[in-house]
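In line with agreed milestones, the collection of sequences with tokenised folds has grown. One record among many is set out beneath this paragraph:
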Amino acid sequence: MHKLTEVSLGGKLNLAPIPADAKRILDIGTGTGIWAIEAGDKYPQAEILGNDISPIQPKWVPPNVRFEVDNVEEDWTYHQPFDYIHCRMMGNAIRDWPRLNRHCFEHTRPGGWVEFIDLDLTWTSPDGSLEESHASKKFNSEFIRASREANIEPCPGLYLEGWMNDAGFKDVKAEKFVWPVGTWPKDKHLKEVGAWNFLQIMEGLEAFTYALFTRNLGMSKAEVEVICANIRKEIKNPAMHAMFHLHVAYGQKPEA
């Protein structure tokens, strides 16, 4: 997912204008820590802190990077503000997005920046080649429904800009990027994005399907495996032009 996002953003780690003299950067839900590690190399003058509820990050990291186990949905206890806060791909993890935005606002220094990067998982097609009868479309609709029934928003990208405005950020900018499913686009850049997206779907389909579909929809493991097999078959068909969207929103905390 990291490589896919980076390719989609033109090789950039972020779109917000991080100040050259930034001293403190927070990476929310850092996961494997790869973004924080690359940010540590890019911003050697800054202390990079990555937090996550799972301690799966590597030990060997740049000297300005450190990780901690933390749940960002609990109260924040940081005593010093951050120059930049980065939050990426936390859909299906956050239950209270407005509260998370308020936490980010409160813990950013005046003039600092916060950036959210997340998805709208609604699958569409530009030419109608993805039809309601397709297994992929049925799966997508059920995934979104089951997530919302579990009080989790699977398409937070749609709302990032509004949540940031509501939290008090100024000059909020929002951008949207196409994520093709497969290499069907003629555009060279989108073809590369589609290749990476195809790879992450093919490799991760069961991982982000089993729990939700068996616990919330009452399906058996065998039923989920059949669904995944049908989806894999469909997305290998170059005639089906499926896609969804990546959203980026970033804004600045007003000067005091």
The helical segments are 2-8, 34-42, 97-106, 135-149, 160-167, 188-204, 210-215, 221-235. DSSP finds eight helices and seven strands in the chain. Strands lie at 24-28, 47-52, 65-69, 82-88, 108-124, 170-180, 243-252. The radius of gyration is 19 Å.
